[in-house]
Design brief:
The chain contains three helices and three strands; from the N terminus they run αβααββ. It is of the alpha+beta class and 84 residues long. A three-stranded antiparallel sheet has the order 1-3-2. α2 packs across α3. The longest helix has 18 residues.
């Protein structure tokens, strides 16, 4: 569960950074930021499926009941996410 909590907090951190900018992120973009955004000693790589699972967790009561919008990225097959 510790790994899961760590990933949830990192996903939330980056979604919050984009909130004031009206920014949408794909799971791949979040994965890239999460890998590069922390020091070498803390580097962890989370799969895109793990990141989307943690986004679903953020919507649950146990993780804060956040409103995370999702939509299909225009001209692509990927989904993108935005914290309200």
């Amino acid at each position: 569960m510790k790994h899961s909590k760590s990933c949830v907090s990192r996903v939330l951190h980056y979604l919050r950074k984009g909130r004031g900018l009206n920014r949408w992120y794909t799971a791949w973009e979040l994965q890239k930021m999460m890998t590069e955004g922390f020091g070498i000693g803390e580097r962890m790589i989370f799969s895109e499926s793990t990141i989307t699972a943690r986004i679903r967790d953020l919507r649950k009561n146990d993780y804060g009941s956040y409103t995370v919008r999702s939509r299909k990225r225009t001209g692509a097959s990927s989904w993108e996410y935005q914290l309200q």
